Write the structure tokens for this entry.
Amino acid sequence: MPVATQPELEPGRAYRTRELRPFSANPTRLAKRLVREGRLRRAAHGLYYAPVPSRFGPAPASDTELLRAFLGGSPFIISGPPKWNALGLGSTAVFPVTLVYNTKRSGEFTFDGRRYLLRRVLFPENPPPEYFVVDLLERHGMAGVSLADLERGLVATLREGRWNPETLREMAQRYGTLETQALVRRCIDAAARQAA
């Protein structure tokens, strides 16, 4: 009887079924066997991860790793309340899903019991904090905060020197609506007047 294939799996790495093809003519069957053996965990249909051993038991793959495998390596960023609340503009939102901007898929997906809301939108490759300010202004309804509150908070933080006004203006021009661009201009002008 032939010996079953034992591929080298990197702990914490996510795999699509097709990535197991070099090890077997039937990668789906191989994935199911590796799940039975405890070497892989199923995150979603066709998406698996090798658990990370820890003293508390097997730990799951990170959000970033699951999204990397699901999106096939295409660019993405994680946005939403964790980024918005850290800005100090008055947002205290909490979502039951992780908001992900990418260039490939839209919709709500569940991987390993974690929910992700994927949106196809434009975003910079390495977003500066000013991008997330514009993102919050664009999605203030999702965050449950009024534009008036955000405007007051943005003027105050601009006065403190927390944001680069030119970068903020550039992010608004590239990724914001005309309304957001006008609001950013008003805030920058108001902060400059109050500082003088």
In short: DSSP finds eight helices and seven strands in the chain. The helical segments are 27-36, 63-70, 81-85, 129-138, 140-143, 147-159, 165-175, 178-195. The chain has two domains: 14-61, 74-93+122-195.
